[in-house]
């Protein structure tokens, strides 16, 4: 979604703002712009497309200013063009504003402002906000922003500057992420810490409903009702290397290859071999409270929703607790049945997904205990949960989620083991699982070393128009994830199906042009899946099988095989997904697609 960067200090702002915008490129956007206060007044530059287009507009010579705001836009209201790109300015051109979110009552506000003589230049919902601030401005910019925000319905993360206050940025947040970066005689505002990490790792995450007055050497934070808030400075332990490509062609490939490390990080200190159990201190729930749970609701979006589906199999199998998995966007608008024995698990890489955040809040309002399975430590979901487990995957920059998915599944496996050991899982079964869990990172490394096989398969099928992904049981969600990965980055239509369900419809699509990826592991449904493969082959479908090492029969019955090491059946998704990630990656590369920033997509979906 939209990205915001603001700088106030003594250095040249332009290069800091442009570098910050580049760091936010991964979030997905269609246009960009920046505004700076100079000795001649406000200067605004905008462009459609990548940041390098904006650099071209700005030209060689740097604008002299040490105070500005910048923005990458992901269009919601008004098409992506230069006029609609942020920053937006008031009629006099003295105040500039950037915004992430949606002003839901903008039509009403626009009518009101039009009556006062305001002239609108754009089709955006955002522009009304800068005019509204102007209309309340009598010398105190913070106060004008505060009054304007009392009129607004919707979500926002904003940064505002004015020529009348050449050392000040006003930042405010409601539902969209915003962070202050604390530097030496300089301060930053951004929607994501990666935009400021080069300059500082000391940050203050803003809460909803606050306004911050940021100058080069201070920041004053109050609620919209003027109650003073003491800032909590946090140190970010991400390094700059982690947000750079490190020799890989794309962030996605780097992140796929990081999985042996990130999975180790997800289990570090959390495996208790003697007791065959997981140690998860962050849950913040007593043993009695965990024993009391008789229903789990899991809510998430996209890839995180797929890891939730896998968790259903894990928790139901190990703990015999009934689990519902629901898209966050649906959960929030129904009337869920929740009681004191229900817990809700919200899964999110970014911790800022608007629908997941709203679903979590809805559940909390109904008195439900909410646990977060989150990657971004300072994120809204992490801060808003009653407890939870961080997945420790490090920054994920590629829009297509890979390492976050496997780390989510790993952490959810640990939660299921813990709940299971409190109920019906024996010490011996627990120990078996914990030992197998410890082997997973090196098994993932082994699959990654085989990427030449996968590349060759990609070379054969990269021109296909459709793909089908089939899996059964705990590997059915992996089929969904494989299909999502492919469509996201290669724009090939792909669908995931439970293997046996294929004959109830999708079989009609199968012909000799249809590649069908089948997860066919040596597990209790192996023979059934082999029958499904025979049905595809009988109609000339091209089968790419993900199979268990040592399976000697399968090669004769399919067109291609990718082997993965043997593990416990409950842990197989952690391995079976790896070839699917690589297959989508190599197909997309072959098709010349924008791997890390696929069209129309955003990394962190902070609007409904
Ligand atoms: C996955 O590849 C996606 N780009 C997307 O589906 C993502 O998983 C979804 O938007 C949820 O994001 P979150 O985990 O940050 O909440």
Plain-language structure description:
The protein is of the alpha/beta class and 608 residues long. It folds into three domains: 2-239, 4-Layer Sandwich (Glutamine Phosphoribosylpyrophosphate, subunit 1, domain 1), CATH 3.60.20; 245-448, Rossmann fold; 450-596, Glucose-6-phosphate isomerase like protein, domain 1 (Rossmann fold), CATH 3.40.50. Strand 18 (295-300), helix 9 (302-319) and strand 19 (322-327) form a beta-alpha-beta unit. Helix 7 runs parallel beside helix 13 (403-421), helix 7 (259-267) packs antiparallel against helix 14 and helix 15 (451-461) packs across helix 18 (573-590). The longest helix has 22 residues, at 427-448. The radius of gyration is 25 Å and the shape is globular. 55% of the residues are buried. The structure holds 2-deoxy-2-amino glucitol-6-phosphate. Residues 301-304, 348-350, 353, 356, 399-401, 488, 604-605 line the site of 2-deoxy-2-amino glucitol-6-phosphate.
